[in-house]
Amino acid sequence: MSKLSLTVFPNYQEAAGELTSFSPSLLLQKGRLLDPQQGLDAVGDVRLQGDKIVQVGNNLPPLAGERVVSCQGLVLAPGFIDMHVHLREPGYEYKEDIASGSQAALAGGFAQICCMPNTYPICDNRSVVEFIKQQAAHANGAIVWPIAAITKGEAGYELSEMVELRQAGVVAFSDDGRPVINGEVMRNALEYSSMLGVPVISHLEDPYLSEGRVMHHGAVSTRLGLKGIPAAAEEIMAYRDLQLAKLVDGQIHLAHLSAAGTVELLRQGKERGIKASGEVTVHHLLLTHEMVAESGYDSNTKVNPPLRTEEDRQALLVGLREGVIDAIVTDHAPHHLDDKRMDFDGAAFGISGLDVAVALILSRLVSRGELSLERMITAFTTGPAQILGLTPPSLTPGSSANITVLDLQLTQEIAATALKSKGKNMPYLGWTLTGWPVMTIVRGKLYAHPSLA
Amino acid sequence: MRRLPRKDILGLEEISTQEMDIILATARSMKELVQSPVKKESSLKGKVVINLFYEPSTRTRSSFELAGKYLGGDVINITTATSSVVKGESLLDTARTILMMGCDVLVVRHSSSGSPHFLAQHLSCSVINAGDGMHEHPTQGLLDLFTIRDQLGSVAGKRVVILGDVAHSRVARSNIWALTKFGAKVTVCGPKTLIPVEVRSLGVEVSYDADTALAEADVINVLRLQLERQHKGLFPSIREYHAGWGLNQRRLNLAKPGALVLHPGPMNRGVEISSDIADGDQSLIEEQVTNGVAIRMALLHLLVGEVARDE
Q: What is the ipTM of this complex?
């Protein structure tokens, strides 16, 4: 394991493992400033004061009393956003809570995350939103933006109080974890929410085609004797929701694309002028259904939508490169060991990802030339920000001091004990990755990855 | 002594022809023991075999039980209705509890594909898959191979038709691996809703027309039809199923003269197979049951048995 020399991080120890404020100001020296949205790629210094970036330039002289962090050899990018995570609180704190999840985000290089509403109780009313915001304020982690349910109780019938929820600060609506089965309800949701300027995020799944099924329907499921979910279960709903968005001029965001056909539908939908966007998870970009067989039915490969074929994976990569897919997400789905350590049919769906998502993309796609660093950064910053109506993260002076710092050379193994998330459920344990986030700056506060200590 | 280079028997996909030859050769001598007046050996003396069955079973469970007892082992049966599973105990906790009592071989049947693999990864004892979901039923595959070889000598080049609900059948998958590895030409046949198209990737021909498929067949292995599939909309009626894919005398006449008829049981007489065929001269269904005991004896012996048995 290569470690960065401590001498280049004179202040790292104060920041290792927790968010730390620096006053009067913090100077990040000689980093490679990479902000694709601004067309910026140059070595330079960034000065932070309070929660703002105040100055960007070359050889900025340190101010009296200022903390200086050398970023030589590191990439400074606008702070990353993960627009699809499950923080499990309230209700399932044994799997994850807002503190552990938002700290896993920090460790993984995310300055902002958006949490899905399928908690207990469901986030379908103002009091749950306020609770989440309050917990997040005390969590000392990444910024947390709640997503509220489309329908009360995610039951698929009555719309949640979208106006009030939007006023309370939610950035999108989704019944994630389950589809809105009734097309009329989805139509109304898209139409009503279009008054608020935030998207409806569709969990694409025809439940009649997926019920009781546990992996992708194909050659591997046939061989393993596991019940398969066909790609059509996703594609059908994608087409329906695109058409409904067109019908009412709503804003639709397609969650966790997994099938080549869905990428094509999204491409066509955008070409037809529909206000549509899409996201892809890290695991769908990296893994296929063969992983279920290779792992010997490891339930950590069980995820919904399921890992699909190599053709699907390639189509997702192409869609991401070409901008058909706007955002990379984790769909961080932490589970307790007890929910996973059982037979494949019985185990819970989901992969934990916040701690390792950025490193996985850097190591398995960027360093292999399958995805440009610029495109990755955009898909973690401007892409999700534009979908959600958030201010696009930027390195320009005046911007919020949210910065993700990457070391493209750092090589580390993924160890369960190093994960900040309570959820150790991932098929990547033991993988050695090169390219890791090493610092995350949130509203001017610096978090350094403990591995640097 | 001869041993298998593995701790567990989870599926025939990963078992080589050399290993299967060893198992079948051992089963040959075991069958003599089963058919002898005094059915007792001591190869498994001091060994404990535990049948852990999460699904109903008559022949597989009693076959394993007798196999263990004929070889002098101690065998107990745990079925879900009488175990602490009904109190909510997890699969792994139940299995670990059993292991701590001193188990040498755990025989598992479970409705979830891959559950024997899961247990094998977590337990130090041998695990034998007695049927996992829709995945494999390796001892059935081996006993079917044994039964066919017994009659035909070799399966290489022989045409075997697996007739019925291939989609949901672990017997079909284990048969496919065993037969294709030894060079048989396997055709799977049934209504399209019960034959996954991807099954071709396992190296078999696919047919939806029983009359065509059965032409020139040397062996017909008829699968049990789960009658509840009708309610899931996979076929319209028992009547239509029997008319289209049931094995009757007219259809059997399309196959090679003397073609062998197998069925893993339990049968739905008059559904997937008519009674006259099940009880007829070409049926090996009862032979399969005896061979099943021999195969299970062979596996128990080869996994944990005493050296003394082999010369």
A: 0.92
